[in-house]
Input
Amino acid sequence: EANFGPDRRAEEEAKARANKITVVHSLVEALLHAPDTKILSPNAGPHPISGQVADYLISAGIRAVVGAANNMVAVEEGSPFAIARRLLKGGVCVPNDSRINRIGALACMIDMIDLDRSAGLALQIKQVGEDVREEIGAYRDNTPPQVFSDRLAARDWNRALRKKRAIGGAFRNRSSDVI
Output
């Protein structure tokens, strides 16, 4: 949608409909076609989760939104944290997209170094398991995953600075969003 002008968009939608493909223009509209959905994976979509979408996800009983699309959660009130907290309070877990992207990056690295397939799969399973455990722990502690991931990034950056593996300024913000 974002890559097409209005004429091309209409042409592509007409092709899809001619092939009996449902065309939707929002996450809410898509979910109306799949009312039993419990896990949503909006990969490569141009529709971030806004406050309105978050409210629908909560009311529809969606339990998790897991995807590798960048910036799945929209910015409201100057930050994605407002929506992340709204989803958390509503019982919807949304792990940060950067954690999901790490899985794909790990798969690429395994291929690049020609690691044995079974050893590579074992490494991926271990990393995914650790990430999932951390994300679920943050969720159970009522810490939005986006906030948790930012805290991990700040912690890792500050650790790299202390060990002289990086150059730059340390995270010093002690607000509720960054440690």
